[in-house]
Amino acid sequence: MGSRGSHAARIPDADSIRRETGFSQASLLRLYHRFRALDRNKKGYLSRMDLQQIGALAVNPLGDRIIDSFFPDGNLRVDFPGFVRVLAHFRPVDDDDSSMRDPKEPEPLNSRMNKLRFAFQLYDLDRDGKISRHEMLQVLRLMVGVQVTEEQLESIADRTVQEADEDGDGAVSFLEFTKEMLWCPACIFSLGCAGVVCSQHMGVNCTEGFHLCFQ
Amino acid sequence: MSGRGAPGCSRGLQLALLLVPLLVLGVLPRARAFEEQPGSAHGESQGFQVVTFKWHHVQEPYIIALWILVASLAKIGFHLSHKVTSVVPESALLIVLGLVLGGIVWAADHIASFTLTPTAFFFYLLPPIVLDAGYFMPNRLFFGNLGTILLYAVIGTVWNAATTGLSLYGVFCSGLMGDLNIGLLDFLLFGSLIAAVDPVAVLAVFEEVHVNEVLFIIVFGESLLNDAVTVVLYNVFESFVTLGGDKVTGVDCVKGIVSFFVVSLGGTLVGVIFAFLLSLVTRFTKHVRIIEPGFVFIISYLSYLTSEMLSLSAILAITFCGICCQKYVKANISEQSATTVRYTMKMLASGAETIIFMFLGISAVNPLIWKWNTAFVLLTLVFISVYRAIGVVLQTWVLNRYRMVQLEIIDQVVMSYGGLRGAVAFALVVLLDEKKVKERNLFVSTTIIVVFFTVIFQGLTIKPLVQWLKVKRSEHREPKLNEKLHGRAFDHILSAIEDISGQIGHNYLRDKWSNFDRKFLSKILMRKSAQKSRDRILNVFHELNLKDAISYVAEGERRGSLAFIRSPSTDNMVNVDFSTPRPSTVEASVSYLLRENVSAVCLDMQSLEQRRRSIRDTEDMVTHHTLQQYLYKPRQEYKHLYSRHELTPNEDEKQDKEIFHRTMRKRLESFKSAKLGIGQNKKAAKLYKRERAQKRRNSSIPNGKLPLESPVHNFTINEKDLELSDPEEAPDYGAEAGGGIEFLANITQDATATDSPSGDTGSDVPLTGRASPPAAEKPALPARSPRPRARSPAPPAAAGAGPGPERRGGPGAHARSAAARRVHSRRSFQRPRARRRPALLKLASLPPSCHAPPHALEQEETPL
């Protein structure tokens, strides 16, 4: 359901959004429907509450972090362009090799770097450009079952940070973070074909190109 | 063909030795019985005989039983060697075995007496398979892709039938096939019966090839739903052939199209009605638990027969009967009955499949049905493959414009190549009347060839093909901690984004449906108790048992006692734990989930070797291991698919509960701290700590207790829970955690069952704090009732305070040197915690009076 007729005209600033995010007309339309479906009271924007209503997010260990990422800089609401902008990070990396791209153009939101940056910011809560041991620990706490003891968690956090930490400052900088992420090159962090998430290739050289999510 | 099967047969030598006498037993006495008959008529005057040999009396059931035994034994034989079964699909082996057996029987008897008759097939063998498919259908996936499935099933099948038939006719007209007594309609009839992808064959092969879930469900769903098309096309063309080509009018064609809708929709409707009936009946079986499982089978079977009687699509009927009833039946019947149903269904389906394939092989050994026409056979093979591929590509091209989740080239290749034909086609072609269809035997032999070719050849090659297409995946190396953690985090992030962006689609419909379901259907079809807690208590109980077991094993490992049989956490080993991220996307299949789930303790010598070789710091190992074991699984990984031969335990709910609990708590906290200002952080942190500790403690709650205590008061607990998480009022939080879990169980179930309850606020089960704090809190804290409204402006503060609970590590922790921490943690790993083990022992010594399902542990073992 959802796509009754073409409401493309009703999306405000459709063209500029498309230019910025690279979404196709159809994807944008679909997202617009989704946006309006999430928007309970037809406010024209989404509040944190609206996103928290999504049941599956409540059982996603990182669900609330993701929700937070829609509300940068302490905003209370996210409008449609903002909504799409966040989602655009998850478009697959465009086919033409991103390293060959014209350096003058701003990097598209779905570039590898921007994807990684997005992920990085989910860890880096205090926005100091580093994932401290402490921040790592918080993420770990979210992600492991309750059976793991606090001491174990701390130990794991320590090791994780140590493993990535090259300059010895006890924290993972964005640079170090990207280095750690080399194992999953191009397709990293894209909603994949067939609903398959590419980073499931953990521990594997994941080069299968999964493309296109929102088309 | 038999040459290919030779390694399989030689491996199961003892098997062959077993089988031959059995067959001889089955065949020879029958021949003897014929001879004896006149004799017994003569000897009537001989008076009373102490022992009489009454072969005749038991002949038919005896032979049937023998064949089933043979087929089952054959299966044991195949699985003696993993090498064979991992290369050759079982269906192919069975066909070859059938050929061999058929040969033996024919050599002994010169009568091809055992063939797959359409009656046996359609009445007894097919229904269990299809019912099983429906009953275990991953509903969400199925309905999520229903549009695609329908397109492939309807348009695809019509396309295949038409193009194959017409092309064959074209070639026939060119004279390449020589002189045959066939008209256009016969060709179309043949095309229609050869067009349909076969559910039995497809599943038998696809189950062994690990393809991703969407692809799986599309091909599987297609093979189930195209039955309606096949039946209609078959009937239409058969009646046209009977009428004679020149008498067919346009009206008949229109009637044919109309009959398609009647047959398919009617079949579906019959299925839904019977599902309704079945759910209703199981609601009232409380006092006849023993025959409870029987209803499931009988009523489903009746749906099949009814729609057959009304000449509707029987397969659709029983499929939808299974699909629609599963939710309510599973909720209504007792845990034991549910287990019985599951196992019986798997047994019947798996057995039927085995027999079908074996008899396909046997049926082929019959010189009477063979009529060879090289051009016809080869061209049929070519056409069905080529047109299937073309059809898939065309339809996918259309579909990809509308689908969120694109079907890739690889998917299309697998889909085209996976178009296996099977016993349905064979049974249909055997049904043809030789008087009407002059070249029936040619059709029969061609169908046999096609079936054998697709099942054996394509079945053999599809796995290598898939692997070849996904070659790039194969590099194995030990992932670093960071990779493991971040990789898993990315999975979670992606699935969250999927949920937010509504990737799965059909949300509007699904919301509507789940509302309707909750408001009406569940009320009618589910037991009162089931509506309230759908076996939740048992689940919680079960979960606790599981936790005990896990912690026991983990404990043992920490103490080093079990460490030696545990391998380190490399991905390429079949072992270890619940959450190994597998190397490839294509392995979304059940069989590998099973492997993961059962093998907490590794007995595989190879990986033991590997582990011995890897010289690594034990602590490192433990760390890796812990991380791997306890990282929450992303959604795609634990969602399991349908499998005909395996049963999966339900792992995911537990995880959902935990996370849900945590999330809700955090949201409440952040909300509260936003409301009450700062200074909450410390308290929240304490609470968090307590929660963690509490949850661990929970796992050692004596297991008998839980089911006895909190049966129905979930709503009150709801209130309590909200209160309790309020830092000021939470002194006795610990005491309630048991109830808390139950409460969570209910709601999590709700959240997961409906998937996107964005339209759910008004429903009777409040989706906790976030959706309806007013309802829950008003009675307790009337003064604060406007709070929910204050919530949406609150977030910025909440964002600041949200991470609060974790702050407590604080400066103190930083002050400790890393080395000290390490020492500390190492010590803590080694520390024995004997307290936990008695809890596990308690499992064994449970009082019989408590409602512990005796199979709680058994279930864990089933996959073994």
What would you call the structural class of chain B?
A: mainly alpha
Outline of chain B: globular
What is the quaternary state of this protein? heterodimer
Number of strands of chain A: 4
Silhouette of chain A: globular
Uncertain runs of chain B with pLDDT below 50, 5 residues or more? Answer: 1-18, 27-41, 471-477, 533-545, 555-617, 636-640, 678-685, 694-864
Fourth-level CATH superfamily of the largest domain in chain A: EF-hand
Question: DSSP strand (E) fraction of chain A?
Answer: under 5%
Task: Please give the count of helices of chain B.
Answer: 40
- Largest interface, Cβ cutoff 8 Å: A-B, 98 and 127 residues
The count of domains of chain A is 2
Radius of gyration of chain A using CA atoms only: 19 Å
Q: At CATH's second level, what is the architecture of the largest domain in chain A?
A: Orthogonal Bundle
Mean pLDDT of chain B: 66
Main sheet: strands, sense, barrel of chain B: none
Q: Which structural class do you get from the secondary structure elements of chain A? A: mainly alpha
Task: Please give the radius of gyration of chain B in angstroms.
Answer: 31 Å
Helix content of chain A: 40-55%
Report, as a whole number of angstroms, the end-to-end distance of chain A.
16 Å
CATH class of the largest domain in chain A: Mainly Alpha
